[in-house]
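Q: Structure tokens for this one, please.
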Amino acid sequence: MQMKLPLILCALILALPHCSDSTESVHHRGGGDFANGGPQIERLAAYDSRRDRLEMESLPQLEEIDANLLRLFQMIQKKDLQSLPEMVHPGDGVFIDLKAHRSIPELKEDLEEQNGYFEQYYLNTGKLQKATGDDSQLSIHDLLEKNEVIKTEYYLEPGGTQVEVKFTLSSTPDQSFRLNNAVFIKRDNHWYFLQLL
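A: Here is the predicted structure, written as tokens:
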């Protein structure tokens, strides 16, 4: 009996790397350390328009979408959003929140404003709190700084040209509501932001 116990333990230890949970999570480079490039992305799941679960390995578009998200996270970490217009298709523009749409020229103008939307909501908690009169507000910069991992769920629309991404903050999940779902649109064989965080 004493000989069987070590054999069973060895078998269990050898089997552990082959075990997986049902989330099919995948980590991507993003630093995981905010000072060195921003948080990582952990893919939780992907769904079609009927909300049936999809195999993420069969969705190569997620690579470019994740790369765009990581690039935006890094821009926020550096507090430099000047390259953001490159990530928006000129023909579509972008929703900077759920209701406000900007063309590329309008987006560039907003990015230049010292106390504008992006300075407040994306980069500077103090300015956001002052503008809203709400001390509980946090800029996206500070939200990302508190989270080494951002969990993502992908919702693919019919036609394969639009993907919505829902975010869950790993360390502060109760603050996830502060991030809008991002929406990406495929144009000219590339993925662009149609709606920002």
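A few notes: Strands lie at 27-28, 40-47, 53-54, 94-95, 101-102, 149-156, 162-169, 182-187, 190-195. Helices lie at 4-15, 61-78, 104-112, 117-123, 125-132, 140-145.
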